[in-house]
Specification:
By secondary structure, the chain is of the alpha/beta class. It contains 6 helices and 5 strands. A 5-stranded parallel β-sheet has the order 1-2-3-4-5.
Length: about 240
């Protein structure tokens, strides 16, 4: 005999529909440094393409724990399908907001990404280059002077790092803890200028994904960039 259906109590709110399943695009491990053999990272990436290695860029701490040295980054670049060149931590001559090459991840959208098949690379985003995928999935976490450059509208470093190392996306850690000069967006005029710089760089680099930390310290920036259009912030802290 089928069980009787329970009647909803009078005034009780109907049950919320189940949330859609989450799809993880990648799993990030941040702070790879000279203590790790780049060949080991490559081997793990070949076996598990959903793994993303996060590189912390902070010139004043390069070569210390969690902050890779120039020499280590050269080795990583050579293993990731790029010939060794001058360290990506040094901007090429000319500076400024040079346009990005058409490779890497598409700009972040507020829609879930399809889950990649096991042991197979994620499908190339719309508008990405048809060049062969690099073996390592890399993300750059910008700190200190690297964020100061972004806030001033200078995209030279991210362009160089994306080209040489094969970095698909960059996280902008615009906090004093990360060594950033936060006084430049302390008032409304400064925050307007810095937010405008971030928007301009995102527009000039459509093939690179940018992430902005969303917390009370960075509120003057993210509220101007995503708050007005109801965007979602996805990273609330860390490096």
């Amino acid at each position: 005999m089928a069980p009787k259906r329970q009647k909803r109590a009078q005034g009780e709110e109907p049950a919320a529909p189940p949330a859609p399943p989450l799809s993880l695009r990648c799993i990030g491990f941040c702070g790879v440094d000279d203590s790790v053999e780049p060949l080991l990272l490559r081997a793990i990436s070949l076996a598990h393409p959903s793994v993303e290695w996060g590189i912390l860029f902070r010139p004043d701490l390069a070569g210390t724990p969690r902050y890779a040295s120039d020499a280590w980054l050269n080795s990583l670049a050579s293993l990731n399908g790029a010939a060794p060149q001058a360290h990506a931590g040094h901007a090429p001559p000319g500076g400024g907001g040079a346009p990005c090459a058409t490779r890497g991840a598409a700009p972040k959208q507020n829609t879930p990404s399809p889950a990649p098949k096991r042991n197979a690379p994620a499908p190339a985003p719309e508008g990405a280059s048809s060049a062969p995928a690099r073996p390592l999935r890399l993300a750059g976490h910008l700190c200190s002077s690297r964020v100061d450059e972004i806030l001033a509208g200078d995209s030279a470093f991210v362009v160089a790092a994306a080209e040489r190392l094969g970095i698909d996306r960059f996280q902008i850690n615009a906090t004093a803890t990360n060594g950033v000069d936060v006084s430049v967006f302390a008032d409304d005029a400064g925050a307007d200028r810095c937010a405008s710089s971030i928007r301009s760089i995102c527009a000039s680099c459509p093939s690179i994904e940018f992430i902005l930390q969303c917390n009370t310290h960075t509120a003057p920036l993210w509220r101007r960039i995503v708050g007005a259009r109801g965007g979602d912030c996805t990273d609330g802290g860390g490096s």
